[in-house]
Every structure is written in structure tokens, then in C-alpha cells.
């Protein structure tokens, strides 16, 4: 029953001459005619009652034949001189299976049992084809087997293509898609359904939706089966090609969906900074997606589809990832060689951080050295560029030698610029520290590294330069008092900025801040001395009483009041136009002035008012009551050029 | 590697000499000597390149391109030495260099894009290789049966289609790719290709054209005249010419986005000693390009690609007329062709990845040089006029 008597037929077709006469010219036609002929032959066989059983039987018999071939190859037995009919039957079986798949639109993956049978049959055909290679027998049935194998592979290749195309859209729910399919329940499906019941957590579901590349377990399992069958049959190249091409374009599609589009280096150089900023933001988004999600997802997919072929999976993954990585790095390289300017610093640092994360991801052992070094190279170059831009701040400060003082002694734009720049830069403190550390290592390896970080040294340098520059600028004021107001304003601004940012504060340290504060107090004192000591002089009790008789000299007293009024008015007139924008400093100044002036004036007034005749004389010389003085002092440093006359009116 | 071997002594000499005479002003003669040496080295390298081409084959084999890139890297290193090493930055910010150097840097940026396009192009050639390997694998089975022939034919059809695809619009062929394999696709499955490669290749940005890029690179390339021709303007011109030539050769050899209207000639004065071999090479490549263009076969002048194409056509013919078990004589012929095909595949396997890496090396080198030159320009600029 198992051995079928078909030897005579096989003998018939074994002669090449014979064969060539039976078929027509074109190979396709030949194939078909050949097939039809065989079908007729098979129909003449005793009918096969149970098709399931017959497949098993056929496989059994083919296995036996394969065993004979193997033995013959090892020299254990003579090579078989004929091919059993089961080979022919197997080819026919596989052909009709392919036909059924194509005709009834039941594609691979709908019926697990059918798939299993098909794959098993294809597996035997593959072995037979290998047998042809290793042990040549001229046989039309083996020829047909190879042809059927090719068809099966073509079919599987197409199925793989379809499966790879059926990537769910990012917003469509994975489970929805599954339920849409008329469920021919497979065991795997059931398992999966159970899985979902165990994890009904909506967050978990969301996670699954977002997962890249978003194939269902079912699809992945089918791809895995197809890949294994193709590789087993020696069609590895075709399989990898389809996989590589489709995943490549899907990956590109995913990047495009994020808005990514390749910008040539030439274009980068032509772009305005504003548009480049947009490109950079996009680039950062894309690189982040790649390092957190896309690459690992792609890797996982590769590993699951080619689970039995880890090195193949590795190659495929890298063929896909390499061009992506290189292209993304190119953008960084393109930017680094654009003209450097201060506003680029922060974007470069953002990019540096993004690449740092990518390099970290690439350290997982699955990326080749060469690609990793490309990435860290690009990172280093961004770092260098960032550092050189940052250090360029030194030059900006050094080269700022404007000759016109800022009116009213206000905060100089340079101070604002530098401090805001530093404050912003210090939000990248850690990164800048890294960058400086790295570069310092390259530049001077053997120089004993100071305890303080190179970045904080750079910060100190910049602060010192700024101080020196401000000092120089303060000398532009002819009025010393204004010079100190200027120094106070700028000093206070710097101090406030530093206290307002933990990062800079930490960098500069408490000692530095204390030093600054005491310097500020010194400025304050100097100001007070410059402006008010002369005024206080007027209210000195000494010199008013003529020596000897102790009588108050009225003319001197009148002169004193006159002087006081004039000086105070003058100070009020000029110093109300001066600006102290820091409220606290402003009130500190006013309070300290009042604290000196008002008691002195009050006591002066209390002591000497009596010597002036009330009425006209007193009104003429005593222009202000102590309360007026207080009010007027409170008008100082407002930046208000309001004349006293208008005030009075 | 090779790139550093034969230039080390030259660079050392320049650096030692410059260090010695850095304080002296009158080192004009030595500078002239350096320039002479640079020209001589360029001439030598290109005459080596010329003599390493065989007469009957295409100039542009993978091995030759690698030599070309080696030569480029050597010339580039020497150029940088001549231009920058130990030099007072203000020297290259004076006329005419204040115009020539920025122009050179512009060319560098364009060369970077060409490098990228060529690297993508090599990826395409690797795809040809993979298809050819399928053909080899199928035809190396014995005996050759219908299955093998059909497998090979499918790969061959893809190969021919991709080879043709490489010229003309990117987008059209991408669409064609996408029409394959979806559900409801043509039922004649065996005819669908093993996958069109275009969709995988990481193309340049839309509208980017290799031909235009080369054109732009060569646009203001004018040999220095009169007094300029003995100064630093000369090495800048020489290096620019080398760069344009190398990029042009890459584009001619390797499929790159949009090569329609690729220059077949850019002017290099014939009387210049260093340019002689380069001019001959240029003429030969241009001649070949024109010939291919007439036949509308422009997968690239790469010798290996052209041989693939020839063998492919012949093997398709064989496949079309094949009847199992085939005539012994014809099978022998095919076996010979297949072994040739296999040999090309081997060459590609050995050469393409290194070529790609070398293109990358050129990219990196050129990027670095640009930065260095910019830095020097910056310094020079700061000295003459403080900014801000």
C-alpha cells in the first residue's frame, strides 16, 4: 500500500530527449502542460480516501526516500536509481495547496492546521531540492519538485509582503483590528484573547497601541513561520530582501509621519536660523523617538520574525538602522559646520543631549563599533561647537568697548545679555560640565586638573571679564556718585541673577557671593559719601557759633540753609533721573539716605530754627520740613526727570 | 592606512620648516617650493590612477574608485598643510583668498551632499549584488531545473528593472514598487519582482540633483592668472578641481539621485602640468558616459555594474528558452557566465562596504577641514576687525 508502483512512468520521463519532446517551447507553458499531464497520471491512481492521511503517508514515503539519499551520500548504500511516486504526489499536493490559498482567498495565517500541513509539505520539498543538489538524479519529478518549491516560495514571499504591509495605523486599536477579522479561532488567537483578558488595564492597552511597529502577535508568528520556511528552503536572500525593503520603507514612513524629511547639507547652510530652529526641534523629536521607541521596536520585530537566526536578524536590523542613524547624524554634522553664533548654543546643547541618549541606547551591544563611533563623534563635535560658542562669550565681552555710558546709571545691556546667557546656559550645567571635562581631557591630559570643574573656571573667567568691563564702563561717568550707582545697579543685577539660579549659585559658590555683597556695600558707602557728605557738612553745628561768645551767627546760618536747599534741590533734580530698577536696592538706598539725612536735618532745624524770625524770613530759608525731605528722598532713583518746579506747582 | 603613508614626510617637512621660519617674513621661496611639491604630488597621484586603468574595461571599477578616494584623501591632507599649517591667519583673509576660500568652502558643502548621495548609491549597488547572488545560488545547483531557472529569472528581472530604474524620476518608480504585493495585486505572482529597491534607499531631499550639484561646484572654478597663479590661490584652485573631478567620477559611476544633464566636461587648462592625467581620465569617463547615455542605459558606469548588466541580459535569454533538462553545451556556457557573475559578486562583496566606508571617511575629512579653515578665517577676521 505504501510503495506505489510508478516506476515505469518514471522511467518514461527520465530520458532527457523524451522529456524535451513532450513539452512545448516556453517554460511557463511547459510547466503548465507538465502539471496537467501529471495530474492525469495521479488521477489514474487508486483514489485517496482520506486526504489528511494521504499527506501523512506521502510525507512518510518522501522521508524514507530522503533517508535513502542521505545514506547513499554517506556511502552506506547505493544511490536509488529511481524517484518514488510520492515525490510527484507531494508536488501535486503542494501545488493544489497554493492554488487553494490563492483561489479561496484564504491566505496564509487563516487556518493554522492548513498552514502547518502546507509548511510541512514545503519542508519536504525543500529537502528534496537540496537532495537534487547533493545527489543528482536526472528526473522530471524532481525537476517538478524544484519548480513547485519555487512557486511555494514565491507564494510565501508574497504573503510575507502582505503581512509586512498590514501594519496597523498608529491610531487604530490593535484589538479592534483583530475583531474585524472573521474569526476562525486558532489556538494562538485564543491564547492572545486570554492575555488581553488578564490585562484589561486601559493604560496597558494604550501602551500597546503606541508600540512600534505595532504588528499583532498573530502576524508576527506568521511572518516567523514564513521566514523559517524560506530560509530552510535556501531562499534566505529573497526573504531578507522583502523584509528589509518593506521594513525600510515602513521605518521611513514612520519618520515621515513625525514630520521628518531629509534636508541636504547644502540646504542647511542656506537656511535662515529661524527655519533651522524648526528643523532642529523636529530632528530632536525624531532622534528621541528612534532611541526610545523605534529602534528597540524594530529590533524586537526582527528578533521575533527571525527567532531561529539571530545573526541574520542582527544583519537585517543593522541594514535598516545604519542608514537612519547616519542620515540623522549628517544633520548634526551639517549644523556643526555652519557659522557659529551665540544663539545656536542652546540648540546645540539640546542636540548634544539627544545624541548622548542615542549613544547610550547604542551601547546595548547590538550596534557595531563603527556606527557607535560615528554617533559619539557627532556628539563630540556638537559638544566642541557648543563649547567654542560658549567660550566666544569671552570675546564678546572683551570686544565690547562702547564709549557712551548708559544714561541714568542703569543696568548695562551687556550685563543683561551676559547674565541671561549664563543663566540659560546653566540650565545645561551638567551637559556643559561634561563637554568641558571632555575637551579639557583632549587638550591637556597631563596637566594636574584643578579641583574646581573646568566649566566653573570658565564661568569665573567670564564673570571676571564682565567685572573688568563694567569697571571700565563705570569710568565713563563724570559724576562719581553716578558711577557707583551704575556699579551698584549692575552688581545687584548680577547678584540677583546668580541667587535666582541654583545652578549658577552652586557654580560660583557662597564665598564669591559674600564677596560680591560686601563689594556692593562698599559701593553704597562710596555713593553716600560722594553725594551726601557735603550736604551733611551744611548741617554741621560747628562753625555756626562765633567762637568765644557762643552766639549764633545769623548770616552764616542763612548761608547754611541756602546752601542746603540748593544742594538738596540739585541732588534731587539729578538723582530723580537716575535709575535703580531693583526695588529692594532702591528702597535700601532711600532708607539709608533718609536714615542719615532726616535725623541730621531735624536736629539742625530743631536747634537753629529759632534764630530765624518767623514769617517771611523763616519761610525764605527753611524751604523743607523734615517730612518734605523724606518725601523727596523717596523720589530719588525713579528715572523720572520731573523738575521740582512742576512738582511744586 | 595608505592615505597617511606617503604624505607623512611632506607634512613633517612643512611643519618643521614653518616652525623654523615662522618669525621671518621672507620665506616666499620656500612657499613656492611647497607649492611645486604639492603640484608634483598631485600629478604623480593622478598619473598612477591613469596607469592603473585597463584599456578595454570601464575606467570605473570598485577597486579604481577606492584608489581615487585614497588619492583624494592624500591630496586633501597636503592641501590643508600648504594652506594652513603654521600660517598667519590673516594671510588667508586677504584678497584674493578672501573670495576664493569661501568659494572653496561652499564647494565643500556641496561635496558633502554628493558623498551622501554616493553612499546611498553604493547601497543600491549592494542591492544589485544581492539579486545577482540569488541568480548565482539558483544556477549553481546541479542539475538546473525549472525551479532554479524560474528563481533566477525572477531575480534577473528584478535586477534589470532596478538597473533601468536608476535613471529617471525617483517618484515614479517608488510608486511602482508600492503597487506590488498589496492584496488585490496582479495575480500573476511570479512576475512580481523580488522587491524594488528604490523605496529602501534613503534618498536625498526632494529636488536634489547630483547633476546640478556638480554643476554648481564647478561653476566659478577659474584657474588663477597672473600674479595669483604663484600664490595660495593656486592650491585652492587645484584642490577644488580635484574635488569636482572626484565627486563627478563618483556620480558617474554610482547611481545617484538625478543625474540628468550631468556635465561631461569642465574646463581644466591643458597647459597645467598637474592636470594632464586628470584631463585624460576625464575625457575617457566622459566618453563612456556619452555612449551609455545614447543607449539610455545609465545604472552607472561602475565596471562591475555594467558586467552584471551584460551577463544578466544573456542569462535572461537563457532562462526564456530553457527546457528541462537543457542542452549540455548551453549549460556549460551558462556555468561559465555564472562563475563570472559569482566572481563579480565576490568583488562587490569585498569592495562595496570598504568603498562606502571610504566615502564616509572623505565626508568626515572634508567636514573637519571645513571647520579648521573656518576657524582660521575667524581668527583672521577677528584680528583685522573686532566684532560686536
Keywords:
heterodimer; A: 649 residues; mainly alpha; 27 helices; 74% helix; 0% strand; rod-shaped; disordered N terminus; disordered C terminus; B: 388 residues; elongated
Describe the structure concisely.
The complex is a heterodimer of chains A (649) and B (388). Chain A is built from 27 helices and no strands.
The H-and-E topology of chain B, N to C, reads as: HHHHHHHHHHHH
Largest sheet of chain B: none
Give the overall average pLDDT of chain B: 81
Largest sheet of chain A: none
Uncertain segments of chain A of ≥5 residues (pLDDT<50)?
1-50, 171-209, 643-649
State the low-pLDDT regions of chain B, or none. 1-5, 21-26, 167-200, 384-388
Radius of gyration of chain A: 46 Å
Strand content of chain B: under 5%
Number of strands of chain B: 0
Listing every helix as H and every strand as E from the N terminus to the C terminus, the arrangement of chain A reads: HHHHHHHHHHHHHHHHHHHHHHHHHHH
Molecular structure report:
The complex is a heterodimer of chains A (about 650) and B (about 400). Chain A is mainly alpha-helical. Chain A has helices at about 5-15, 15-20, 25-45, 50-75, 85-105, 110-135, 140-165, 175-180, 185-200, 200-210, 215-230, 235-255, 265-270, 275-305, 310-335, 345-360, 370-400, 415-425, 430-445, 455-475, 480-500, 500-540, 555-575, 585-610, 615-620, 625-635, 645-649. Chain B is built from 12 helices and no strands. In chain B, helix 5 runs antiparallel to helix 12. Chain B is elongated, with a radius of gyration of 25 Å. At the A-B interface, helix 2, helix 3, helix 6, helix 7 and helix 12 of A face helix 5, helix 6, helix 11 and helix 12 of B.
